[in-house]
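User: C-alpha cells for this one?
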Amino acid sequence: MDGACFRETLRTRRRWPDVMAIWKKDIRIALEEERHVRANDRDYNERFSYADNRIKTAKYNVFTFLPINLFEQFQRFANAYFLVLLILQLIPEISSLSWFTTIVPLVLVLAITAVKDATDDYFRHKSDQQVNTRQSQVLIKGKLQNEKWMNVRVGDIIKLENNQFVAADLLLLSSSEPYGLCYIETAELDGETNLKVRQALTVTSDLGDDVAKLADFSGEVICEPPNNKLDKFTGTLCWKDNKYSLDNEKMLLRGCVLRNTEWCFGLVIFAGLQTKLMQNCGRTKFKRTSIDKLMNTLVLWIFGFLICMGIILAIGNTIWEQKVGSDFWEYLQWKELTINAVFSGFLTFWSYIIILNTVVPISLYVSVEVLRLGHSYFINWDRRMYYSRKATPAEARTTTLNEELGQVEFIFSDKTGTLTQNIMVFNKCSINGKTYGDVYDEFGHKVDITEKTPCVDFSFNPLMDRKFRFHDSSLVEAIKLEEPLVQEFFRLLALCHTIMPEERNEGELVYQAQSPDEGALVTAARNFGFVFRSRTPETITLYEMGQAVTYQLLAILDFNNVRKRMSVIVRNPKGQLKLYSKGADTILFDRLDPSNEELMFTTSEHLNLLGATAIEDKLQEGVPETIACLTLANIKIWVLTGDKLETAMNIGYSCNMLRDDMNTVFIISGHTMLEVQQELRTAKEKIMGPSKDKFSSGLDMEKTELYSSDSVFEETIIAEYALIINGHSLAHALEADLEQILVDVACLCKTVICCRVTPLQKALVVELIKRHKRAVTLAIGDGANDVSMIKTAHIGVGISGQEGMQAVLASDYSFAQFRYLQRLLLVHGRWSYHRMCNFLCYFFYKNFAFTLVHFWYGFLCGFSAQTVYDQWFITLFNIVYTSLPVLAMGLFDQDVNEQYSLRFPNLYRPGQLNQLFNKRKFFTCTLQGVCTSFILFFIPYGAFMTAVRDDGAHISDQQTFAVTIATSLVIVVSVQIGLDTNYWTAVNHFFIWGSLAVYFAILFAMHSDGIFTIFPNQFPFIGTARNSLNQKIVWLVILLTTVVCIMPMVAVRFIKADLYPTQTDKVRLLQQATRKQGPQEQNLRRVRRTSSRRSAYAFAHQQGYGELITSGKNMKKEEELALVFNMRK
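Assistant:
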C-alpha cells in the first residue's frame, strides 16, 4: 500500500463512515495503548484478557437461536404489526375474526424465515469449525504438541513448516534459512503471489530449532495495540537486559503461507479477531436492494391507507349508530357501556383494522425470500457458468441481491487476475531484428495460434518446464545451430534476474520469483536450453545446452520504481566482463542526455541490443466480447488497479476499452491539488465546451431525462473520451473540493481507468459514485486487495483465481471467469428483476382486490365490521389458493429467452431506469385492485337484488353472496396471472389449475355434511357451496364479473403493445417469428487496434532480492552447499 496515498485517504474517513468502518475497531480497542507479551508464560499474558485464536462468524447457538431469531424477526415492521393484530383479535369486543386467521400465516412466515436463518448459520458454524480445528505445532511445557488453531494463545511459540498457513500474527524467531530469513506468500492479504522476505533478529535466530532453548526463551515484546495496518508494525523486544527494535519485516501475519523455507518458529503477538487479517476484514455491511427499500416505504403507505379506511368506516359507524342503529339497541344484548355511538365507532375502527389487515401482506416477505432463494439456485445450477478446468461452479453467496443484478449501471473491476489470467506467458521475441513466435502455413500466410496449434518439441532438453508452450520451431532451430546472438539473448534472460531456485528432486526446478513476468522470462530461457540452476552470493550457475557454466557475479543493479530496469555485471569463464541489462526500450536509452552525442554513440557501440521480449499477462477468455456486450447494455465499466499507468493502458487497449480512434484520452497525473483541479477542468471544458457552465456540479437531473435537445450532449454521446488517473492524483481528486468535478468528467467519458490505487481508494471511488449518481454499483475482483471495494459496492463479485480466496469469501457472488459476468447480469439479473417486479405488481393487485371488498360491504352492513368471506377463506386465500401460481411466475417467467437476452443487451435498460416497478407502477396495480374489488362486490350485489333460484326462491342469503364473490375472486386472479405470465411451463399450468381445483375441493369440503358433523361450531354453513353453485344464475354472475374485471386490462395491453411497443415487445415478436429457425448467436466482433509502439516491460515488476543475494545472507554455507551438491550427484 502506498504510504502517501494512504495518509491522504485518512482525511476522508469522516465523510465516508461506512467505507471506514474498520477504523471503528481501532476506537473500540483504543484503551489498549500498548501490548505486553511474554514468551512461554500463559499465566502472565492471560492477565490482559487478550483474544484467543478462535474465529467466530456464526450468530447463534442451540440455546440462543430461538430468542435471538424471534427478536430479530419482530424488529421487522410487518411481523410486529401482525403480532399486535393477533393480540387485538383476542379481545372479543372488537374482533369479528378468529385468532387463527392471523396466527397461521404469522407462524408460517416466522418458521420459514427461521429455517433459512438456521441453515445459513449452520454453514457459518461449519466454516468456523473448519478453520478453528486446523492443526499447529505449539511449544507447551518444553515439548512440541499438535494443537488446534483455536487453542493457540498470545505468547505461545509455534513451529511452521513449508507450505503451511500462518495461524496467528507471529514475531519471527528463527528459521531453517541462514541469518533467520524466511519467504512468505501474502496472496490472502494483499493479492500478490510473489514472495516476500522476512528476517528474524540475530539474537533470536541463534535459537535455531533447539526446542530446549526455545522453551527457555523468556523475552517480552512491548508493541502497538491491534490495528489493520498490514505494512506497519512497531515494537520492542526486551530480553536479557537488552532491547531490540521490531518492525514489519520481522512479522509473519495470519493468512500468509510459508514458502521455500523448511521450518521456522514464531511468537504469537496477535491472535484471532485481533490479527491484522481479521482487522482488515471490516464489518460486513448488510446490503439491501432498491426494491427492498421501496417495499418498506410502500408497506408504510399501505398501513397509512389502512388507517384511513378504518377511520372512514369508524366515522360511518358513529353516524349510523346515531341515526339508525339506536332503533335496534333494544333488540341487541349490548352492555350499557357500548350504547355510546362514539365509543361504538372507536371499537369499529379496531375491528376494521383487523378485518382489512390483509391489505398489508404478511406473506409478501416470505414469498420474496422464496423467490430469491430459487433465483440463487438457478445461478448455482447454471452449467454455462461452470468452469470445467478447475471444476468451479458459479455461486450465489447471498440470496438478497438477485434482482439488483438487473439494475447495475457501474462496474468497478480489478485488472490482474480479473480481466487477465495473472499468468505471464512468453509469447514472442525479437532477436537481431528477426521476430520469433508467429506461425505461418505452407503458403507463407500468418495463422492464428489456438490451443490446437502444435507446440515446439523441447524433448532435447531434460530440464524443460513441461507447462511451457511455444509454437515457432524456428527459434529452437536457431538455438541448435548455435547462432551467437540467439544464445546471448537467452543467456541474458538466464542471468539477469533475482529469482531464487528450489530443486526439490533431481531436475525438478521450482523458481520463486519476485514478479510473474521475471519468472516467465527465466522459464523461457530454461526451455530453450539456458537453464538457471543455482546461485551463491558470488556466482550464478547455468546449464547451457546441457553443459554446466558458472559465472562470477560482480554486481546486481536491482529493479526499482525509479530505475525501471535491471542490470547484472558478471565475468564469464573466458574472463570477459559482461553487463546485461533488461528494461523497457523507452527507459534504457532515455537515461542518456540527448546533448551528449559522443557518449551516446560510444555507449551504443558497446551496449548491443540483443532483442526484445513479448511477455503477455493473457486476458481471460471472452473479456473483450464481454466488455463490448455490457457496454451496449449501457453499463459503465471502470478499471481500478494497483498496476502502473502503462500496464493499465495496454490492458485497456487489449480489452477494447481504449482505442486509437478515441477523440481524447485524458491522463490526470498532477501531484498537487491545484494541478489535479486544472487537469480535470481542462478535460471537462474539452468535452463540454467552456461556455457550458450551466451543466455544473450542482445540476440534478432525473435518470430518464435525455439530453437530445442539447447539441453538446449529442456530441458527448457520439464522441468517445477516456479518463486515466493515477493514485496520487486520485487522492487529491477525492477531496471534498474536487470530487464533484471528478464525477462529472468521469461520467462523461466512455472509459475510466484508475491506476496505482490502494485498496482503500478503490472503496472510496465506489462510494463516491454511490453517493453522487445514486446508481447500482458492482465491484469485481480476485484478491484480498479488492475486499474493501467488494464490500462497499451494492453487489460484490469474487473471481476464484490465482490470488487466494479472500475476495470470494467477502463477495455476494463468485465464479471463475470474468466472462460469466455477462450472463450473470444480462440473463440471471435481468430475469430476476423482471420476475420480482411482475410478482410484486400482481401481489399488491390481488391483495387489494381481495381485501377492499370488505370496505365496500361496510357501507351496506351498517358499518358493523361484518366480513364478506368465510373466515377459513380469509385464512387460506394467501397461503393456499393464490400462493403457488404467483411463486411459479416469480420463479420461471421469462419475457425473452436467454439467447435473445444476450443478443439484445439494450433489453437491460428498463432495470437501470426502474421502469418495471416503481411508485407509479404501484399506484397503477393498486388502482386496478381497487377497481376489481368494486366490480367483484357490486355486480353480484346488483344481480342478487332481484335474482331468484331455479325453484323461484330468492338468492339473498349472505353465505351464497360470499361464495359467489369468493369464487369470482379466485377465478379472476387466476386468469389475471395467466395474462401476466409470458413463459408457460408445466409447473405454471399445474399450480394455476391445481390451485383452482384445491379451492373448489376445500370449498365443498368445508360446507359438507361430514365436516359439519365433526366440527359443527367451526363449519356451521352446511350445504352452502352445493346449493349455490348448482344455480345457473350464480355461474352467469361469476362469468360476467370475470369478464368485466379482465377485459379492460386485455384491451389496454393490446392497444399499448400495438401502438406503443417497448423494446421487449419487439424482441418477443422477433423471437416468436424465428422460433422455428433456432437461436442465432450474437457476433460481437473484436476490433483490433492499430497499435502504436507501447512498452510495458516490468510494470508489474517489483524490487527483487538483489541486495539480499549479494550480501549472502540468504545462502547456505559453502560446506552445506558442497554437501548438498554431492548428495544430489
